[in-house]
Write a structure and sequence with these properties.
The complex is a heterodimer of chains A (365) and B (216).
Chain A lengths: L3 H8 L1 H37 L5 E5 L13 E2 L2 H6 L4 E13 L6 E7 L1 H8 L2 E5 L7 E5 H6 L7 E4 L2 E10 L6 E4 H7 L5 E2 L1 E6 L5 H11 L3 E5 L3 H8 L3 H30 L1 H9 L4 H37 L8 H27 L3 H5 L3
Parallel strand pairs in A: 4-9, 6-8
Antiparallel strand pairs in A: 1-11, 1-12, 2-10, 3-4, 3-11, 5-8, 6-9, 7-8
Chain B lengths: L1 E4 L2 E4 L13 E5 L6 H8 L11 E2 L2 E2 L5 H11 E4 L11 H12 L8 H10 L15 H13 L5 E5 L7 H18 L2 E6 L2 H4 L4 E6 L2 E5 L1
Parallel strand pairs in B: 3-8, 3-9, 6-7, 7-8
Antiparallel strand pairs in B: 1-2, 4-5, 9-10
Classes of the chains: A alpha+beta (365), B alpha/beta (216).
Chain lengths: 365, 216
Amino acid sequence: MDNLVLSNIRQRPIRTLISTSGVALGVILIILNTGLARGMLNDRIRREQGVGAEIQFFRIGAQTLSTSNAMPLDVRYADRLKKIPGVRTVSPFGNYLQTGNSGLGFEMVDAIDLDTYSAISNLRIVEGHAFQSDDEVIVDEFKARRENKGVGSPIQVFGKTMRVAGIYSPQIGSRIKMSLGALQRALSQENKCLGILVKVDDGIAPEEVARRINAELPNNKVVLTRDIGLNFGGQIPGIKGFVRAVMGLSMVVSSLVILLAMYTTITERTREIGILKSLGASKTYIIGVIEKEAIAISMIGIVAGLAVALIAGFGIEQATSLKLEFHWTWLLAAALIGLGAGAIGALYPAVRAANQDAVKALSYE
Amino acid sequence: MVYRVGRVDVNALRGVDFSVAPGEFVAVMGPSGCGKSTLLHILGGLLKPSSGRVIVDGEDLAAMSDASRTDMRRRKIGFVFQRFNLFPTLTAEGNLKLAERIHANGKPGLDGDARREILRLLRLENKMRHKPLELSGGEQQRVAIARAIINRPSIILADEPTGNLDTENSTIVLDMLRKLNQEFNQTIVMITHNPEAATVASRIIEMRDGMIVGER
């Protein structure tokens, strides 16, 4: 290994390990956080679209992922929607956002009118029975399996202990469903709902039915379910800002680790810098050697970070109900940020080294 | 050459005026603190004199910027140090290749035959795969000499090249410097405080208190 950069990396294993860990940490932060945000969002979108309703009807300004759990829409809109040509079935619903039962993150509870919901979605109870009282819920097969919930198991909803009455299939909407009436009574919002699911007649374009709904019931929000991804991304408060903050924080962390590691290394290698200068190495050359070393360290950190992030992501999915989705654009972004952090972090030590007095550097002990 | 150390000005060199002809081997002798090292650093462009001229191969180092002096050093000057100053993480071959890479922007280095001849002269043919710590002091200094001449500099500046060597290795190294001078017409300026070491040179300049006080 007769390359100055590679031999220096090999010669200082502890320094290399610490530096690569700093870069890897930044990469892991970016990949896991973006993977989680993307995975949870896309999972939600898939399950919402899997319900089978082509249109969702709301009051203007209604938020489907809000913590306020408000239900601003009168359920009697369902009767008016039913009369619009092209509408086959409607089903009012509510949402309740609570802390995850596994202790991680948040989870949504759907409050539904089971008969009309089942007509739209083909939901069926595969074990047990439907909820028959306000303190009963049904859960999907994934949640039942992952959290070991069977018929009769206790489950926390509203901070109260309720009972699992049944297990349903397929995995659509939220993984916990309760009676809309129960939510109305719990929140003292009788005859209210968050929105109404609309199933369109066969052979009619959903856009046409949406246009008719807008014409019949103006000043409301009519959303095509296929566009719900765009809707969610804008509604989750601060998610874009959160992702940007994670990326910025990762870059700062990695840069600082590289800066400190390279600064210490330069101090140890003062005489080597003097030798390079005595050989006629220009400032650009010296900066280049140090930057190459930092970039090489960063690349090791990136590979390690990618590997750990992917393995950790798999482990998280196996151990929890969280969903992670990795996309190559984010992996590439994480790698580029890791490289950038290394290059930027090493810049100050590199320039400082290049500007050292050669005579003093040569006599440094 | 005037140094400023804190608030004190130190006259390291006062009115030094001499020349070295191409192919000449000059030893600069004097006690510690007489200014020998400062003179060598100025000749090599590592220091800029506070006044005067330093002409190397027709170019005045004293009039150059730091970047230009660095470029001059890369093209025309080779250093040999008392402490060898080899890169410990590289083999002997790696140390030579590094010097060649740094030099690569300018004229080409030694061709294969000339390189082999240098290594033969310095008895390094079987030492090139060893790292400095695996070599004796004499061998390390010979590698340092090879590194200094690998790019055919106009002048070699040797700073107490035998200062860290025992008598036997000192003799070997001095003999090799003499052969480089005689067989390759290499111009060498060597500073030393050892009168015996100075005898390998064709001319000896004596310094004291920053001035040249004699020549023989």
